[in-house]
Amino acid sequence: MKxxxxxxxxxxxxxxxxxxxxxxxxxxGFTQCVTLAVFAGVISTTLFFWERRVAAAFLGVAILIAxxxxxxxxxxxxxxxxxIFFLVGMMIIVGVLKxxxxxxxxxxxxxxRKNMNGVSFTAILCVLSAVLASVVDEVSSIVVVxxxxxxxxxTLKLRPHPFVLMAVMAxxxxxxxxxxxxPVGIFIGNKAGLTFAQFLVGATPVAxxxxxxxLFITVFWFRKDIRSMTLAMAxxxxxxxxxxxxxPYKTGLFILLSTVxxxxxxxxxxxxxxxxxxxxxxxxxxMTPLIVAGILMIWRPHRARHYVEKDVEWWTLLFFMxxxxxxxxxxxxxITQNLADSLTKHVSGxxxxxxxxxxxxxxxxxxxxxxxxxxxxxxxxxxxLVERAADYSVLWWALLFxxxxxxxxxxxxxTANIVASGxxxxxxxxxxxxxxxxxxxxxxxxxxxxxxxxxLLIFPSPRPASAIxxxxxxxxxxxxxxxx
Amino acid sequence: xxxxxxxxxxxxxxxxxxxxxxxxxxxMSRDEIVRRLVGTVYRSGRVPPTGIxxxxxxxxxxxxxxxxxxxxxxxxxxxxxxxxxxPRVAIATSExxxxxxxxxxxxxxxxxxxxxxxxxxxxxQILRALTTALKDDATMRTVAAxxxxxxxxxxxxxxxxxxxxxxxxxxxMSRDFITLxxxxxxxxxxDTFISNHLSEVAVLDRDGDLxxxxxxxxxxxxxxxxxxxxxxxxxxIANFEPFAQVLENERRTWLSEILVKEFPxxxxxxxAIQVAGEMTRFKSSKCxxxxxxxxxxxxxxxxxxxxxxxx
Lengths: 484, 311
Fold this sequence. Notes:
The complex is a heterodimer of chains A (about 475) and B (about 300). Chain A is mainly α and about 475 residues long.
């Protein structure tokens, strides 16, 4: 078997992180160092050996148990089954929407449009990508919009790459707008105790402004390709962009709107059902996709097995569960507490001063590994900070935007990017080069991160109801800026 | 280097002795030589459980299904016999040649093979051993000219007549196949499918390397955009005329756009069991055999089944 030099790189990263943690004061004992090494190993595997990430997570969990870094019970508790259930439910609902033709209708309604040009198509594509990503999920969204891109570009005999890039970037931005758009959203929302409505207030405006900025940047960046599309559309006007069809959509639209509406009022429903307290945090938010999926499978029993087996990404969900467990070990071993201490000690300016730092770390991290990895690791740190002062809850938003927007920087930055690359190859096109992606991605990532930073500074961000009010005495001493 | 590892335990001569060799047979018909060789096997003592007439009938029936002349001058009449414990072989040579029905030239070496019905792969293994030993026309003529049964036996004893450990893709593949170029249009492809009654064809690139396959199913994919196939029930769009789209696009659609890059593919030395596994995994009735990127053969499921279970 040929030796892969990436193995050495992986070993070097693991050693560096473990030693860095030791010397930096994050990890002081053997178990803490092993915990850090396992976490670094799993993260590095997602970077260097993407297809072996689940295997690495399996082994990582085993090492944690064997070295007494975690018990079996604490591993099971840390798998965040509530989030997994939510994602399973949403994936089944999206499967039903596909099956019923709703997503086909979305594409067809654009194909059927007359008198489009390159700019209007690009604008529609970006808005559609962002909106779809915010109400279904980023992966389903990118599959749908790329089907549209391939249909249009194949018909017009155009290179699809610029439009794929634009769609992916809009998808990543749109996925931050609601809790439904990205596993990161539901993870942060659930961990922080944020409601769907708070997400609409805290995340949607930032996502919208970032989308507009991205649209301007990408339209300028790909102006030649957009112009070519305008010319091709003019030449092709008589033949159209595809078959003109009428697709039934009302049932699918009703299901989607009903689901989103119920989720939007989950907080009120939880109150009405007296589902309060930490034990039932966001209970109805988690249950709604399961309830809707259950009803849909009762309605369509002959397809129920298909939805569960084919539409649910069990591979990804299994990875998430194990990853959450490994990230939980950082918390259990007190490493995240140590990091929180270190941050409050070394970063001046209090919560506001930490916004750019969290944005930067989350963006850079998400640019190179799956954003959920970084969010899972950073969540206990922010939880520890919020326990000290409620003002730190602004960092939840910084983490969200950093993770979602940072995903635009490289081709491996988010699941949507990887799916898009795969679809490009499947359609017989060469993948987008790393350099091509990062040139535009870095600009979009930087601009959108700056927008998020500015808006988080200017506008008050919604705080989770459960955030503990600051205890004035220690906070005044340690964090003078909070009083300001 | 020999591609298939030899099984040192099994030589071809394990299945016959000097007494099973009949050199310099006179002028005889095919049926006569078959009857004579079956008689030789019976005389050797290791008798098939069926009677001599039934065995001769089984061998001749196989001949009516298709000639068993496997190379110029060499015939391999054979039959699968119920209850036979081990393969049995008898050899006859004729310098003047035996007229074989359906063949233009005379046969000089006849190799009768009786195979146990429950060991279907043995036929192909023995066939490989035999063709390796009689590797060319000159060798075969040398054997045909041998006047002594012991010499013929020793030829197989000392030569490379070992049974391969397993049968490979090369043993069961067909070297006749139709290909298209990736620069061919959909129109050419449809014409090829119709005129050759095909449902799948291999697509090569400019260098002759196998790039993928085009299946009739893929043509339907061109008719129906991908996003329509997300719907389980297409009856709401029953009025849609997909084939009009194909007619419109067939001259402007190149095979490189629609070819499938994931298909069953093996190398010539891949064991037959792996070939079967590939076809099962891809739910395909064809497996492509390539060597250094070049397509060298195609294993077709019907022929595969015939070779393993019937021939």
